[in-house]
Design goal:
Length: 364
Amino acid sequence: MRETRDLAAYACHGPQSRGRQHDETRERGDGGKSGAMPDTLADTLADTLAGRTPFQRDRDRILHSGAFRRLKHKTQVFVYHEGDYFRTRMTHSIEVAQIARSMARALRLNDDLAEAVALAHDLGHTPFGHAGEDALQAAMRDFGGFDHNEQTVRVVTALEQRYAAFDGLNLTWETLEGVVKHNGPIADRSAVRPAIAALDASLQLELGTHCSAEAQLANLSDDIAYLSHDFDDALRAGLFGFDAIADLPQVGPILAAIEAAHGQLIPGRRTHELVRRLISVFVSDLLAQSSSNLERLGAGSADDIRGAGEAVIAFSPEMARDLETIRDFLFTNMWRHYKVNRMTSKARRVVTELFDLFMSETNT
């Protein structure tokens, strides 16, 4: 199917997708052509449904999955019952996807692929945020441990059972690459988790290289979303006040500019204005630095991005340092706040006791 947008040469183009793990063309009655590696126009047309590109189909499959629906009950920091205002994994994923899609268009990247990777990136997370994962990791120590990124791979390749002919969502190579390399290349083969190793054996994901520009963009959109929106949740929860963040890089100047322009706004408006401007600052920096990187690289294909030897989609060095300072502040004053720790202790106990219960029933 012809792409309808003016994509750059270094973007991922649907007609050039490396295909899917399972052949779906037999299911559509087209004579049994292989859908695993479409390399002709006919194969690409066979791999589309109702006028959608391969990456649009990926996005839709993720949105309609049970795993995505279950994200509405999972949180990153606060426990779900603490209020309906605080962000869940689902609302966070939607926000990440929106940021990724907007920036992809600005860089002439494939926004459908960026959105699909963004929507899938949290599917493997446990309930109760990081506390739940810590508890499950401890409980699974004798069984190889637990890794949420590996669990995401399991979800999209095996655990979702929506199709008669295969397990998983049968996503494209490019979307799976973005999920697997969410934290960057995996150069150490001994560190490759079993589910990822099995998928790599099937699809040759080139684990030691960087992922596409779209996937890199989705990964950094995750950072933009949580590093800005966590201020919204923390300020509303009363974990810290505006005075505590007045000296933070990027944050302090924005607060000063808001006060200069609008005076003393009520806390809610002030918070929303802060978050809105903070996202704009992060996005503007990333677009400027990434555009410069792309121009310097002179990439002529998506594979040029993968083989660049470094991430091409990136913040400026100055912004990267500021983001690290902001991350350190949030770690101390939000993610490890005593009110949060009080609930996470209970969350760990719930996950541990449920694990023990399920294991005892399995062994009886």
